[in-house]
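TICKET: design request
STATUS: open
ATTACHED STRUCTURE:
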């Protein structure tokens, strides 16, 4: 019977772990102490460069929209052809 004292050791170990537990208030204080508020620093951009960046973003968005519409049209045509082939052939 080598396990006779084992349950008591487990209970003692669990009790020791419960004593070490932090309260919510302590955890909150540790979190607030560890976080620092940082200010974001953005690069200064001239109005001309900003307008160029905006135009590039808009051009890319329009191009992506056309590609997406093309994919939808192509998929629709494939599905309709498949249905036609199933029903009439």
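STATUS: resolved
RESOLUTION: sequence designed for all positions
ATTACHED SEQUENCE:
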């Amino acid at each position: 019977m080598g396990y006779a004292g084992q349950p008591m050791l487990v209970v003692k170990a669990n009790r020791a772990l419960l004593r070490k537990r932090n309260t919510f208030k302590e955890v909150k204080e540790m979190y607030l102490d560890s976080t620092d508020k940082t200010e974001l620093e953005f690069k200064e951009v001239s109005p001309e460069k900003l307008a160029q960046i905006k135009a590039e973003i808009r051009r890319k968005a329009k191009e992506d929209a056309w590609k997406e519409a093309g994919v939808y049209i192509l998929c629709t045509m494939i599905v309709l052809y498949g249905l036609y082939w199933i029903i009439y052939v």
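CLOSING REMARK: The radius of gyration is 33 Å. The mean pLDDT is 86.
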